[in-house]
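Section 4.2 – Deliverable D4.2 (structural model, holo form)

The reporting period included a commitment to supply a predicted holo structure for the target in complex with coenzyme A. Inputs used:
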Amino acid sequence: MSDAGVGWRRRGSIALVTLERPERMNALSRALVTRFGEIGREIAADAEVRLVIVTGSGDKAFCAGADLKERAAMSQDDVRALLLSYETELGWLETSPVPTLAAINGAALGGGLELALLCDFRIAAPHAVLGLPETSLGVIPGAGGTQRLAKLLGEMRAKELILRAARLTAPEALILGIVNQVMPKSEDFLHEVMAWADPILSGAPLAIRAALRAVRGAATRDLHEGLALEREAYEACLQSEDRLEALAAFSEKRKPVYRGR
Ligand code: COA
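Output (structure tokens):
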């Protein structure tokens, strides 16, 4: 683990990114955000990676958001620069060619929830607490939370949660549609998350990427443009060896062996 309080390692074809600042509840310091951006570039260069999981060390916090102790000593310009760096250094989670998943092992507050909102999937431990409490601290979410929560839930719920600085339990977040799933047990949480993600790793790698690109594209396109994107994304699968392997495996009644080609 680096001094910046975040590191990554590959476990099979999963890139596991771990926030590790337990004394500050894995809060986002400047150094951590900078290193997070580097990690994104390192993972992008690793052709073996087929899924990125972001999690926090320990079981108390996924990430408690901005490092409020560091923030206290920062000038207004420092804060402005930090807000910009959230976009440049954390944004790769949202544009990654392979899916990204936030394994929310504890509190995900403020920037912690915003980090999770950048991911394609969010899985929570049963004791996790989630919220964007910034207005109770005299600011607003500054790492995309106002926009991404509104897109995810609609304006009505986003206003409710952000203006009321609500802290949700994991089951509440599930009912609202902020998390995909709440795991039943806190023990072995990461293991359970990996089991949940297993179908993603079993799928044909090119098809997983193509599906991800097509579905993500729906948010910014009308239906006509979206259907064109879908056809374009399909083309990558149509030309693949893995598609032929899937058809052969089906007729031979065996499991396909995908090569990502
Ligand atoms: N920045 C810096 N330090 C933080 C922090 C943050 N965002 N959140 C927690 N810490 C520190 C605490 O100050 C404490 O350190 P100390 O003992 O040296 O004072 C340590 O982490 C443990 O926190 P504590 O509150 O005692 O743990 P807890 O288990 O009771 O509660 C949280 C955990 C995450 C629920 C709680 O710390 C919390 O609500 N933090 C603030 C989160 C927040 O509002 N984030 C939004 C920022 S915009």
